[in-house]
Amino acid sequence: MDYKIAVIRGDGIGPEIVNEAVKVMETVGAKYGHSFGFVDVLMGGCATDAVGKSYPDGTAETCKACDAVLLGAVGGPKWGSDKPAEQRPETALLAIRKDLELFTNLRPATMRKGMEDASPLKRETAEKGFDIMMVRELTGGIYFGKRDRYQTEDRGEEATDLMTYSEMEIERIGRQAFELARLRSKKVTSVDKANVLATSRLWREVMHRLAKEYPDVTYEDMLVDNCAMQIVRDPGQFDVVVTENMFGDILSDEASQVTGSIGLLPSASLGAQAPGLYEPIHGSAPDIAGQDKANPMATILSVAMMFRYSFKLAAEADAIENAVDAVLGEGWHTADIAGDPEKLVGCRKMGELIRAHI
Ligand code: NAD
What we know:
The protein is of the alpha/beta class. It has 12 helices and 12 strands. Helix 1 links the parallel strand 1 and strand 2 (35-40). The chain is globular, with a radius of gyration of 20 Å. The structure holds nicotinamide-adenine-dinucleotide. Nicotinamide-adenine-dinucleotide is lined by residues 13, 17, 73-76, 90, 93, 262-263, 279, 282-288, 294-295, 298, 334, 336.
C-alpha cells in the first residue's frame, strides 16, 4: 500500500527524533512492501521564525490531505509566554487538535522489561508489570469551556472556568474506549468524580448505557482520586482507562512517570476520520537539542501506533515494538535511561539499532 504522511519536525530535538522515525518507516516499508510519501509541514517556533505564525495558514488542509500526521515536538524558551498567542507554539498544538477534530487521546503507559529499576514504583510492583491504555477526551470539558475573570464588590477579583460535556461527546469517546478494550484485555475503567460533579454523573450514565452494548468487556467506575492512588499502588489492575480532558491530562502524566522514562512514551490523537496525529509525549527538550542525545524511541513507538490504529498494520506495529524491546533487552540506552556506560548511545545510533532489529 501507499501512504502519505504529514511530517511536522518542529523545534528542539524534534527534527532529530523524527529523522530516526522516518527512517524506521522506510525500513518497515521495504520489508513489508509499503511505500511512504512524506510531506513536510512547518509548525511551531520554527514556523514563527519563518513566517511569523506558529500555525501557518493551510497547515490543517495539508495535514487533512494525508493519511496520518507525525509530530516531533514544538516549543522552546525562544517563543515563551511573553510572545503574542499566534507566535506561541502551544497555540499551534491546540489549533491542530481542533482543526483535525482529534477528540481522543491515547496514551499507553507500559512497563517495558528491563526498565523496572528506572521506575519510581516499588520493585515488586514494577516487576509485576503493567500495560495501561489511557484514553483521554481531548476537545471538551473545562479546557474548552467559557472562562471569565471579573471584579466583585466585596471579595476582590473572581475567576471562573466552566466544565461542560454533552452526551454526544461522552458517547463517542466511550465507544472508542470499549472498541480498544476489545483489541486488548477487555476491561474498561471509567474515571470520574460523580460524587461531586454534574458532568461526571452524566458521564457515568452514558458509560453505563454503553457498557450494556459491550457485554464481553468488563466495566468499572472509579473516582479520580482513587484512580490517582491506584496507579501507584497497583497499576497492573488497569487495561483501558477512559476519562474526561482535565482528569486525563493529570492521570496520563502520572501513569507515564511510573514507567520510568519520558523518552519511551508514544501517543496518538484520533478523530472520527483520518488523519490521526502521532507524537511522543515529551516536549522539545531544548536542553539537549542538536547534541545527538535525544531518545528517539517514543517517536518510533508513535509510528508503531500509527501503523496499528490508522493503517491497521498490526504485524508492522508489532515488528517496531519488538525491535524496541529487543534493543532495550540488550542493554542499549540513551542518556535519559540509566544503564551500562559502555552501552550508552546517541539518537542516531539508537535509531540504527532499532532498524537493524526490524
Ligand atoms: P520536555 O519533555 O521537553 O523535557 C523535560 C526533560 O526531559 C528535559 O530534561 C529533557 O532533556 C528530557 N527529555 C524529554 N524528551 C527526551 C528524549 N526524547 N530523550 C531524552 N531526554 C528527553 O519538557 P519541558 O522542558 O517542560 O518543555 C520543553 C519545551 O517543550 C517547552 O517549550 C514546552 O512548551 C514544549 N512541549 C511541547 C510538547 C509538544 O510538542 N507536544 C509537549 C510538552 C512540552
